Predict the 3D structure of the following.
Amino acid sequence: MKYRRLGNSGLKVSEISLGSWLTYGGYVGQEKAVSTIDKAYELGINFFDTANIYMRGKAEKVVGEALRRYPRESYVLATKVWGPMGERPNDRGLSRKHIMEQCEASLKRLGVDYIDLYYCHAFDYDTPMEETLRAMDDLIRQGKVLYIGVSNWKAAQIAEAVSVTEKYLLHRIVANQPLYNMFAREIEQEVIPLCERNGIGQVVYSPLAQGVLAGKYQSVDQAPAGSRASDERGKETVKSWLKEENLRKVKLLEPVAKELGISLAQLALAWTLRQPNVSSALIGASTPEQVEDNVKASGIAIPDEALKKIDEILS
């Protein structure tokens, strides 16, 4: 496993990281979730990602329990705040009240004393930016959080946050978690250049487009047993990627991967990691076998000629 700095921070994270959206606490059973996390740790993944909203706290509990057997200093743990955790008006968003209360709740569910990386899970149009960033800064000063990040923020919103942290001398944002894969390249236009200038690393989610870029699906109508598309909770997320045009591109990518002697999943992950600003590619593996295949993408340098072919296929 290769490791990269998280933005301009001194924190080193594995090029492949393991997430828990829709999986742990969801359609993946407890035993399999724990064995998958164990395999990831064994193979050198030191970066584990979850969120309070994933299965309303269940994912945090599963991840925390699985990691408890390992030395706390040996892994980097990320979670998030923003989404609705109840029906009351202050049970969501990025107000100081919600951030402080949810940080405490996440620490309890995870069973740890501190969170390595705490994300603002989405942008909150109802809360002043200064309020949000001061609350996050206070969590760092209290020792409950070590680094802060944002997720699903537009370039202009990230730029505003950078400006606020500079103005008030607050701890800087070191990570952004955006959607990025061969089918979704929007961040290349504005987000990556902005983040490169400001020392913010990308931790990209859905690098395999929910398994479509791994060649898991042969048809838009038939879902393999045990896949996310075969589960009611995961079906809708896969549907956005499971299109005839995308499957056509995957077929064309197969010989490129074969020529390089790697799997389709490894090709897709190595392609995202070709970007120096990408600190880690976040996988949603649900079995130890998937982790074993995915981690082999770390350190793969795709030749220029193959990159050219890929661009032609994707265009």
Summary: The first strand starts at residue 3 and ends at 5. The two ends are 31 Å apart (CA to CA). The chain has one domain: 3-211+271-300.
